[in-house]
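The protein record quoted for completeness.
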Amino acid sequence: MSAHGDVDLGHTVAGWTGTVVACAGTAGAGAALCAAWAPGIWLGLGVVAVGALVTWVLHLSGWGKPPGPRTADQWHWRVRDVTAAGGHGACVGCRLALRAPGGGEPGRTRESRPAPAA
């Protein structure tokens, strides 16, 4: 059980990667704002946009998760969603990629990758 109870908060490779890239972009834009360097502000905002694009591409390649509840074996952030190629029914990102809504059933065709031993 996690600190949040029996709830999957959707931590994924796509989500974490996009968050790190977007944080770097906002930090860069903030530093450029403090330095009164206008091109740096736009550069930082561009990095934020790249973070959104990276998140979307990783989600479409299976490193994100579909919206909605998932079974407990799908909660680990390294579980790859192999049904992403078919699109997720209620997923805006999949619709933007022109993927057919209504991918596979949750928990049925996903492969689990255990965390490597430390």
User: Anything to note?
Assistant: Residues 38-63 form the longest helix (26 residues). The mean pLDDT is 80.
